[in-house]
Amino acid sequence: MNKTHEELLKTSVTRLEEIAISDPRTKERSSWDCVLLSRQQGRPGAATYIDLICDEFMELHGDRTYGDDPAMIGGIGTIGGRAITFIGNRKGMNLRENIERNYGMSNPEGYRKALRLAKQAEKFGRPVVCFIDTPGAFPGLGAEERGIGEAIARNLKEFSTLKVPVLSFIIGEGGSGGALGIGVGDKLYMLENAVYSVITPEGFASILLRDPSRAQEAAEAMKMTARDLKRFNIIHDIIPEVPEGAHKDPLFTANAIKETILKDLDVLCAKPAANLVRYRIRKIRGIGEFEGSEAWWTTLMEVFKLTVDLR
Amino acid sequence: MHKAENCPACHRQVSDDVLKKYQMVCPECGFHHRLDAAQRIEQIADAGSFKEFSAELCSKNPIELDGYAEKLRQNQKQSSMNEAVVTGICTIEGLEAVLAVMSFDFMGGSMGSVVGEKITQAMFQGALSDSPVIIFTASGGARMQEGIFSLMQMAKTASAAALLEQTGVPLFIVLTHPTTGGVTASFAMLGDVIIAEPGALIGFAGPRVIEGTIGQKLPEGFQKAEFQLKKGFVDAIVPRDKLRTQLSFLMRTHAGVKHEQNA
C-alpha cells in the first residue's frame, strides 16, 4: 500500500465516523460518502438479507464443473410458501471471513454456479432474486485461466433470455462486470447508499485523472449513486435505509426489499414467459446515449418474429 | 515511399511496402501488426463490396464528464473514424456477411453507447438479412468516460447475441490484439465460432492489474491467443493470410440452419 492509499484510508475512517454522528436528513449525502458506506465492514450482505427475508432457506453449492465459490451464495428460499432462487455476491462480516470469501470477488465458478441455479430455477418455474455486492470479478491468475470473461459473458446472455422473472438488488458495491454478471434482469433496484459503476473510483482516478488519490472527485464525476442511476433510468427504484445506513437497522431494509419482491413477483409471475423476455430485452436494448438514433423498435419486433420462443 | 521500420517483435527492418504486401504481418517472424478498420475491411471483404451502415451514430457525453467531448473530437480527427467500430454489409468470396470491425486506435477500442449500439444493430441486420455476422474485436474494455452507460453495453450486446442465436444466424468472432475487459466479458466470448489472431492478448483483467493482485510477474505468454486456445476459450488461431478462406469456409458450413428451423 503506498502513501496516498494509506492517507485515503485514514481520511475514510474519519469520514465514516463523521457520517455516523451527522444527521444525513439535513443534507444530501455525497457520492464518496455512499462509496464509504457501501463498503463499510458490517454492512448487511446477501446472506443477512436472505436470512431476514426468507422463512426457510437452503444453500446450494458448486458449479458442477470446477468447484464452489465462497464469494457467491446461492440457494432456494421461501417467502410465505412462495419458492424463490436467491443468488448473491458474498463478502465477509470481518477480516477472517473476508479472506475466506475473497472480499466478495468471484472467480468463474461463482458465475457458473449462479447460472446453474438460474437455469434450475427456470426449469422449475421459480423466480430469481439477485443481491449484488462486489468490488468486481476477481482479477487473478486462476480466474483468467478458467475464463472469467467467458463466464460473465455467458451469464449476461443467458439471464437476458431466462424464462422466469429476475429481480436484482444492488445492496452495497456494484463493481463493474463482476456486478453485472448477476445483474441482468427484469427489475433493478439500489439501496439508498449503494453504488454502481463501470470501474471503482480509485481505478477511474488513476486511469483518467492520473492520480489515485483523487478518488473522491472521481466518485462525484462518475455519477454512481442510486440517485444518479435513478435519474438515468438505469434502475427502477431506490430502496430506503435508515438515516445512519443499512448496518444500523438491517431489518428495516430487509422488510423494504421483501415488500418489493412480493409486489413485483405478483405482477411478473403472471406474465407469459415470452412477454417477460421480450420486455426485458427491449429495456436493455434501449440503454445508450448517442446522436443519430434510428427507430430501433420496429427492427427489434422483426427480429423477435424470426425466433421460435419470442415471436 | 520506402519507409522502413523495425519489427517490434524481431527488430529486423521491414519496409512499409513489404509489410503491406504481407498484410501487415512481419515476413521475418510472423508478428501481426495492428490494423485499423479500413485496412481490415480491405483485407477481408471482396473488393468494393463493403457498404457501411450506422455510420451516422455519434457519441454524446451522457454523464457530462469534463473533457470527454474534446477527447472524442480529437480521436475523430486523428483516426478519421466516427467511433471505435465500423459496421456494414459485404461479401467474402462471394458470400454475403455483416461485418463489424473494431479499431484500437480510436480511444483504445473502448465500448461506449455507440459501439454497443452499432454491434447490436449489426447483429440484428444479420438476423434480418439472414447473413452471418462477423465481428473483429480490438478493445481495452468499457469506455469509462460514459460511466454506467458503457457498462450496460455489455448487457445490450450480450442480449443481442442471445436473440441472434435464437434466429439461427451464426455469429463468428475474430479476436485481435488486444481484446480485454468488458468486450471480452460480453459479445467477444459469445461467438458460435471464436477465432483468434496469433499472439493476440485476450483476457478480462489487464496483465498489469493481475500482476498487482498476485504481486508477481505473469508467466510468459499468459493471456495470449495460444494460451486461450490451450485453455479452451478459442476454437482456432488463424494467421492473417488464411482468415478470408477460413471465414468463407465457416460461412459455407453454417448456412441453411435458419430456413430449416422456420420451415
Tell me the distance between the termini of chain A.
55 Å
* CATH superfamily caption of the largest domain in chain A: 2-enoyl-CoA Hydratase, Chain A, domain 1
Number of helical stretches of at least 4 residues of chain A: 14
SS-based structural class of chain A? alpha/beta
Tell me what you see in this structure.
The complex is a heterodimer of chains A (311) and B (263). Chain A is α/β, with parallel strands linked by helices and 311 residues long. In chain A, 47% of the residues lie in helices and 16% in strands. In chain A, strands 1, 2, 3, 4, 5, 6, 7 and 8 form an eight-stranded mixed sheet that branches. The termini of chain A are far apart. Chain B has two domains: 1-33, no CATH class; 34-262, 2-enoyl-CoA Hydratase, Chain A, domain 1. Chain B contains ten helices and ten strands. In chain B, helix 4 packs parallel to helix 5. The relative contact order of chain B is 0.12. Residues 259-263 of chain B have low confidence and may be disordered. Chains A and B meet through helix 6, helix 7, helix 8, helix 9 and helix 13 of A and strand 4, helix 4, helix 5, helix 6 and helix 7 of B. Strand 9 of chain A pairs antiparallel with strand 4 (58-59) of chain B, so a sheet runs across the interface.
Q: Which features does this protein show?
A:
heterodimer; A: 311 residues; alpha/beta; 2-enoyl-CoA Hydratase, Chain A, domain 1; 14 helices; 9 strands; 16% strand; globular; B: 263 residues; 2 domains; seven-stranded mixed sheet; 10 helices; 10 strands; disordered C terminus
Condensed summary:
Chain A is of the alpha/beta class and 311 residues long. Chain A contains 14 helices and nine strands. Chain A is globular and about 55 Å long.
